[in-house]
Amino acid sequence: MQFVEASLTGYRLKVSESGDDVETVASVGELETLRRIFPRLPRADAALLGPGDDAAIVAAPDGRFVVTTDMMIQGPDFRLAWSLPHELGWKAAASNLADVAAMGARPTALVVAIAAPLDTPVSVLEGIADGLRDACAAMAPGAGVVGGDLSTSSALTLAVTAFGDLEGRAAVLRSGARVGDEVAVAGRLGLAGAGVSLLYRDGSRDSDADGAREPDARLARAVRRDHPALVQAQVAPTSPISLGIVAALAGATAMLDVSDGLVLDASRIAAASGVTIAFSAELIEAEAETLRGIDAGVGRRAREFVLAGGEDHALLATFPAGAVPEGFRVIGSVAAAGEMPVTIGGEAYLHSGGWDPYADWDGNSG
Amino acid sequence: MQFVEASLTGYRLKVSESGDDVETVASVGELETLRRIFPRLPRADAALLGPGDDAAIVAAPDGRFVVTTDMMIQGPDFRLAWSLPHELGWKAAASNLADVAAMGARPTALVVAIAAPLDTPVSVLEGIADGLRDACAAMAPGAGVVGGDLSTSSALTLAVTAFGDLEGRAAVLRSGARVGDEVAVAGRLGLAGAGVSLLYRDGSRDSDADGAREPDARLARAVRRDHPALVQAQVAPTSPISLGIVAALAGATAMLDVSDGLVLDASRIAAASGVTIAFSAELIEAEAETLRGIDAGVGRRAREFVLAGGEDHALLATFPAGAVPEGFRVIGSVAAAGEMPVTIGGEAYLHSGGWDPYADWDGNSG
Fold first, then answer.
1. The complex's ipTM?
2. Residues 6 or more apart from A212 whose CB is under 8 A from it?
3. Can you give the pTM of this predicted structure?
């Protein structure tokens, strides 16, 4: 089912109960909502047939296609008090494009299913469409949206599936790292993790109900003003998509995108390849110093954000010695499998397993 | 991001608050949930690389692939009081496979993103996986799940994206119907619509809150016992997937799957092709008679269910005169564009625009 289908009977049966004059998906209806979204979506060069039939048709010139899917859900994945609609669309595209790039493929197309509460302003969906378009234009020119689905849910939900073309190359898997390879990264480390930590601490207020913290749009705007790079990296990350192909052409032996934290993601390459990823303590410290240079507020937590902060969607890859291409920074090497899957300066790094949003933060100096 | 990713930190931070010994996604955690689901998912013959890396790789031997996406959300799309988990998985597969089939393509692969409330029993996800597997085995042997995403939401959500191979053929679009073509259907008409109407009327009880009807599992079981074919068609429809290719090979000029009702879907072919779809009053009555033969309870509403009932995922196609293949039943012809996009016995059919769940129903005779 594609965007043209009238799958949302509910949209036409209900009207907004808010009483004000904000146009909502319920008050304008599904077809009109689609009419507003459509012109904003990016076109895909690879679309042989775009939206409007039961399915789209996408070119796959090398006889294979790469596919990845990822859901973003209001609550666990984003807060409307922290993210603008444009940023939601951007991030949904970026996180999926990064997975395609991490295979060494060129992103070609996306399909996007959106479920929105009935009282969602149409402008929110327009903003999401704009974000999808701008993210594709910035990170993967030529990639676009070939289809989708519009539905309703109590939680705003974006389900994006992205496709890529390997252009005749072998895919770069997680399993190909070899002892002696260099370990290198392209893109940012730690910004997005620092950003969400800060939003939890200073972009939320105490909730009377259960001691939980409640995201607060006004407070978040202040955080955004004081720490623009960190918040931007969290709500609308820029991933070095085109460097995925550069890495593949340079002979990368393994690659993934850093979505859950450098150490955790490196441990996945280690497990898949049967090796240990040995980060250099000095080079990790240099990454932390870079992060402090971007925002001094991260202070003594810079190393932690570099090692355990997720969602920057940097590309982490291993290359034969001397083959690291421009755009990647060496941060370690591949060693024989040892006791620990990942070491830093020869020592184990104990991943904390998640963020403590109330932990120390030198925010006052930032 | 694929199934192996630990994207669900929340799953590990929270535990079930129910206090009983039901294993929930929160209590067993994401990785263990995936371990339970994985062996149950169907394998895809076309998978060159399955789950476990940043993306999957699927064969597209003719240099193109067909893609469609559809979300199913607890509340607007299904009720847990009416559907078993196995049926949710089955229906999510069937509705997407039908869209692929309606292009004249052979379904090859699916990606499946599931968001479940934290207190969802793991057995629900296992049931969904079993339903996906059994639906693929029954309707599209060789098609399977190549990847997915697991997340959490307040509403159980299934986002399925399905792929197909055109095997060198031209796709069958909605726009190719020509005056003089025969109009034919494969699969069932009206059962699923009758089933959901019945579930609304007899599978729900009055809610004190706001006059709305509340789905009731015990009542629904009684409906299911008395009207098995209708309920089954609604909660786990069987679409004639393989007949999509048969239609394409026979020279179908237009095709879609009937998801929103025969008249409404026929009007889409009419609009895309610039023609009128002229159903035969006698042949529509024969379809209504078939429906009454399956369940006499539909009584005098049989014609309405045939014409406006959705979700059976029958295939509606147009063929050059004399070219209708086995498996399809002729129910009309293609006429020059007239005042109405769809006629029945030369008369307009005014689509009611949705179900009235409280309308008359001869249920007592069924």
1. 0.91
2. none
3. 0.91
